Amino acid sequence: MLETSARLLKLLSLLQTPREWSGTELAGRLEVSTRTVRNDVDRLRNLGYPVHATRGAVGGYRLGAGANLPPLLLDDEEAVAVAVGLRTAAAGSIAGVEDTSLRALAKVEQVLPVRLRRRVNALQTYTVAVPARRRGPEVDPQVLTTLAAACRDHERVRFDYRAHDGTATRREAEPYRLVNWGRKWYLVAYDVQRGDWRTFRVDRIEPRTPGGPRFAPRPLPAEDLAAYVSRGVSTATWHYRARIVVHAPAEVIAQRLPATAGSVEVIDEHTCAVTTGADTAETMAMWIGLLDADFTVHDAPELSAALRRLADRYQRAAG
């Protein structure tokens, strides 16, 4: 039988898993009586741990949220995962989180057993990250948490928004999801004033108080919001757009065309339509050539001219 202090630590570790434990289950795990379990639960409560209990056949014990963060008991893999996550966060795009992550990492590494500290340090020493070509915008963590809470609670948000051209507008929106893409964060929300879905850069948002009323959730604009955001953000900067007919099955072309480069629609079993675009007509012509399939261009003179120039260049290179 475990000593009382060791038993309390093991009980706390069990209760930190997100589930309810019956007294019988805990007694079996700790190899004690259910009466001892009840006494140990009382000891944890006296130490400030909010252990909740429910009666009945499906009742049990679970650890609730308390006013103070209790010590966490992690197994080996969890401890390594936390340390690696903190190292990654220290190089992230959320303003101010770098120092906080490093302070938390120092505390974690101080109490790591030697065998685990060696694993974490080996990962740090022998891992090299490719730096971004340019540092992305920093996001205020308070803005992120405010938006996340509004998404969770289905509460409208009011904010000042600065567009990519510097234009400032006042917005009221129903927030649904935060999407992280590289070093940038985006808010997917329904713009109440414009009556449509919008994607907002979080680093350009300045929340205003008070917030808006609660709202009934709408169906999301897409099942895959990551693809929805990446496609929308990429297409927003297109200067040239075209819709071409590709003489190949849609499922084949969809595998070859990145979501950020366009969309694919089925025409029939052997043909599909591709809507694509780019900053220049030449870039768009190169993307289409990478589809490796015959295609037909309709009503896109800039693209047709770029394709002819590209074909002439390739023909001269081939001799």
Automatic annotation (TrEMBL):
Q: Which GO terms describe its molecular function?
A: DNA binding; DNA-binding transcription factor activity
Q: Does the keyword Iron apply?
A: no
User: One of this protein's Pfam families, by short name?
Assistant: HTH_11
InterPro entries in UniProt: CBASS_pafABC_assoc_protein, DeoR_HTH, HTH_11, PafC-like, Tscrpt_reg_HTH_DeoR_CS, WH-like_DNA-bd_sf, WH_DNA-bd_sf, WYL_dom
- Domain HTH deoR-type as annotated: residue spans: 4-59
| SUPFAM superfamilies named among the record's database cross-references | Winged helix' DNA-binding domain
Instruction: Enumerate the Gene3D superfamilies for this protein.
Output: Winged helix-like DNA-binding domain superfamily/Winged helix DNA-binding domain
Keywords, ordered alphabetically: DNA-binding, Transcription, Transcription regulation
What protein does this entry describe? DNA-binding transcriptional regulator
Which species expresses this protein natively? Catellatospora bangladeshensis
